[in-house]
């Protein structure tokens, strides 16, 4: 319930940011009903929720009713399942319970799971399945095209996404997200500084996985009406939209945990896991402050960048991010094998140097400008004799 509430009000924040970027007024009218108190439009998410609930649940006659109903449920379950392994802070101080023993509380739903990242990847796979089911069950050409686009996009960007994760796993030596945070906190070096190439690959890949602009080709209104949820309305449509937004929120949590140190911040939180109540509360505030910053960056990018073409989207995944991800994994593996500890300034210097080199090589291999629009006919030079022959043939017909 808390995640749904947060998603609703983050939508309001995004609408405010969109209005600010486009130099217009955002939603600022809905407040307390039957009064003139507007509260800066804070009642807008409640009004939107009531609107979706009161809308007619119309099921078209040409759809597969079972898959049509299961797809939104599966999408929402997959989005919520991703939060099961995310630690929302450090370990709380030990407290006595009914049996008199002291127990430590970890702010994670499944604290004993040693393969937390794998569960997150599994949730992403379920998201792909829900999109495929929704597009196929709708029995609509626009929905089908949107589903094919989304499936191709998600599968393509899973490869660089996983390669960027491998560097973090090698550096921390664990698949548990709380151990990854602790490895960064104890040394004071965040993975974003010692693995900048992997951070850039992960940032682009996770943005594509979330389906946000400029990667929202599955829902391009100018081409596909509404994409794979064209035939949906009411609560089913709300489930699909909320699941997409929850994917973005989960991606922000994962960026903070893997690359931005989680609850750690220099001079504010310590590097040890054992803290008092004040320190634990401070770490929770630091963690959620970082997450909110990443979410705001997602929102600004959405309203600032134009949408990719689909061929550009695929080229970015297979021709740019995949080689960069392989170089990143090779670099981290070699450093750990020959040197050992990667959380040091020498590894950071190597990481930033490799980022500059691969960026320069990629720019050198790519032309400064490229007109790669698809053409039906191949342009060929025409000689003067061919022009005269064409003119004679035209005059003969006339």
Key structural traits:
mainly alpha; 398 residues; 2 strands; globular; two-stranded antiparallel sheet
Structural topology:
Blueprint: H1 2-21, H2 44-54, H3 65-81, E1 95-96, E2 102-103, H4 116-138, H5 141-172, H6 177-187, H7 191-194, H8 196-210, H9 221-224, H10 234-259, H11 277-302, H12 310-338, H13 345-365, H14 384-397
Antiparallel strand pairs: 1-2
Helix pairs in contact: 1-2, 1-10, 2-10, 3-4, 3-10, 4-5, 5-6, 5-8, 5-12, 8-10, 8-12, 10-11, 12-13
Regions with pLDDT < 50 over 5+ consecutive residues? none
- Beta strand count: 2
The secondary structure category is mainly alpha
Number of helices: 14
Mean pLDDT: 82
Report the end-to-end length measured between terminal Cα atoms.
77 Å
Give a structural overview.
It is a single chain. With 398 residues, the chain is mostly helical. The chain has one domain. The chain contains 14 helices and two strands, in the order αααββααααααααααα. The chain has a two-stranded antiparallel sheet. A hairpin with a 5-residue loop joins strand 1 (95-96) and strand 2.
């Amino acid at each position: 319930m808390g995640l749904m509430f947060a998603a609703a009000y983050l939508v309001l924040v995004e609408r405010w940011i969109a209005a600010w970027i486009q130099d217009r007024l955002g939603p600022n009218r809905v407040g307390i009903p039957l009064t003139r108190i507007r509260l800066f439009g804070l009642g807008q998410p409640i009004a939107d929720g009531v609107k979706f609930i009161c809308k007619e649940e119309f099921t078209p006659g040409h759809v597969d009713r079972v898959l049509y109903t299961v797809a939104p449920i599966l999408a929402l379950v997959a989005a919520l399942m991703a939060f099961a392994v995310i630690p929302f802070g450090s370990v709380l101080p030990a407290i006595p319970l009914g049996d008199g023993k002291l127990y430590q509380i970890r702010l994670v739903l499944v604290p004993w799971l040693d393969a937390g990242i794998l569960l997150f990847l599994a949730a992403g796979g379920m998201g792909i399945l829900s999109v495929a089911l929704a597009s196929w069950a709708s029995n609509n050409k626009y929905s089908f095209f949107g589903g094919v686009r989304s499936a191709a996009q998600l599968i393509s960007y899973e490869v660089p996404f996983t390669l960027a994760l491998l560097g973090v796993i090698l550096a921390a030596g664990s698949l548990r997200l709380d151990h990854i945070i602790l490895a960064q906190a104890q040394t004071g070096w965040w993975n974003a500084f010692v693995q900048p190439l992997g951070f850039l690959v992960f940032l682009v890949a996770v943005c594509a996985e979330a389906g946000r602009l400029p990667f929202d080709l599955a829902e391009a209104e100018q081409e596909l009406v509404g994409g794979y949820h064209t035939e949906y309305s009411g609560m089913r449509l709300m489930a699909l939209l909320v699941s997409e937004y929850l994917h973005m929120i989960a991606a922000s949590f994962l960026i903070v945990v893997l690359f931005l140190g989680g609850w750690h911040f220099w001079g504010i939180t310590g590097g040890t896991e054992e803290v008092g109540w004040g320190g634990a509360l401070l770490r929770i505030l630091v963690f959620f402050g970082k997450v909110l910053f990443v979410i705001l960056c997602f929102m600004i990018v959405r309203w600032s960048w134009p949408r990719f073409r689909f061929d550009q989207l695929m080229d970015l995944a297979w021709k740019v991010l995949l080689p960069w991800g392989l170089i990143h994994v090779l670099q981290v593996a070699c450093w750990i094998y020959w040197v050992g500890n990667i959380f040091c300034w020498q590894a950071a210097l190597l990481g930033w140097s490799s980022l500059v080199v691969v960026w320069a090589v990629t720019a050198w291999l790519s032309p400064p400008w490229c007109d790669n629009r698809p053409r039906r006919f191949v342009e060929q030079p025409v000689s003067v004799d061919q022009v005269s022959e064409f003119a004679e043939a035209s005059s003969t017909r006339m």
